[in-house]
């Protein structure tokens, strides 16, 4: 890692906090720790963190509640830790905004790899609000036009096609990255901005909805292609003005 990212570890077990602090600092990360949501809140009020490692089972407010509260005001990456192994716990964590999920007991090196992966995705891809602040006013693709100011989509015949807020964010993500394979994780990151309410399991459904609006034959898509094992790709040239 080129920069010293600031990590917040929230866990009620002191041995885990100390272990992670020592290990992560040895690998170039700056680490603060908190034993519960109260201590976490005090640290976040005075410091900026690049990633939070958040235990699911905490005294007072649990990790799910804290994750939901953080996500309501911030898109800081969150990795959930838990001793519970049921799939429903993982799903709930992701649905409330966690970026990844690591069950206990875990190998610190695996957690470090997850941290690097999440940070790489988070800082490499701009959020929706960041895209809108730098994006062109008008995108043109396959005889379609998208106006980013009015959020109006115009088909090849000139008719307007209504888009939901989430469909707009998804289309903008593809237009900003034409002919680039975007994984579900990339797409999730890209659409997590103002007006977007989507989680990993909904990506495929959202893609299907957008295809029905812009593809001549949604069952045989030519614009938004499925890349098996990779994700999705907008397969056309894009110009802007």
UniProtKB/TrEMBL annotation:
One of its GO terms (biological process) is regulation of DNA-templated transcription. It is found in: Cytoplasm. GO terms for cellular component: cytosol; protein-DNA complex. It comes from the Bacteria. It holds the Pfam family Trans_reg_C. CDD domains: trans_reg_C. GO terms for molecular function: phosphorelay response regulator activity; transcription cis-regulatory region binding. This is Two-component system OmpR family response regulator. Residues 6-119 form the Response regulatory domain. Transmembrane segments: none annotated. SMART domains: REC, Trans_reg_C. The modification 4-aspartylphosphate is found at residue 55. Residues 136-236 form the OmpR/PhoB-type domain. SUPFAM superfamilies: C-terminal effector domain of the bipartite response regulators, CheY-like. Residues 136-236 bind DNA. The keyword Phosphoprotein applies. Keywords: Cytoplasm, DNA-binding, Phosphoprotein, Transcription, Transcription regulation, Two-component regulatory system. PANTHER family: DNA-BINDING DUAL TRANSCRIPTIONAL REGULATOR OMPR, REGULATOR OF RPOS. Its main location: cytoplasm.
């Amino acid at each position: 890692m080129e920069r010293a990212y600031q990590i917040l570890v929230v866990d009620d077990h002191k041995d885990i906090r100390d272990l992670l602090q020592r290990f992560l600092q040895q690998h170039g990360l700056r680490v603060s720790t908190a034993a519960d949501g109260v201590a976490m809140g005090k640290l976040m009020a005075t410091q900026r963190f690049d990633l939070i490692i958040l235990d699911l089972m905490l005294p007072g407010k649990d990790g799910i509640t804290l994750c939901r509260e953080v996500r309501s005001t911030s898109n800081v990456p969150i990795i959930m830790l838990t001793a519970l192994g049921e799939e429903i716990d993982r799903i709930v964590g992701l649905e409330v905004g966690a970026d990844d999920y690591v069950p206990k007991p875990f190998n610190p090196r695996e957690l470090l790899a997850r941290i690097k992966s999440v940070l790489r995705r988070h800082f490499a891809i701009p959020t929706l609000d960041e895209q809108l602040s730098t994006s062109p006013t008008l995108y043109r693709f396959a005889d379609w036009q998208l106006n980013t100011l009015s959020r109006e989509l115009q088909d090849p015949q000139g008719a307007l096609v209504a888009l939901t807020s989430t469909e707009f964010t998804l289309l903008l993500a593809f237009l900003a990255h034409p002919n680039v394979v975007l994984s579900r994780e990339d797409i999730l990151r890209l659409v997590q901005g103002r007006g977007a309410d989507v989680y990993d399991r909904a990506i495929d459904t959202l893609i299907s909805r957008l295809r029905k609006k812009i593809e001549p034959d949604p069952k045989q898509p030519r614009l938004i292609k499925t890349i098996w094992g990779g994700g999705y790709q907008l397969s056309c040239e894009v110009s802007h003005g």
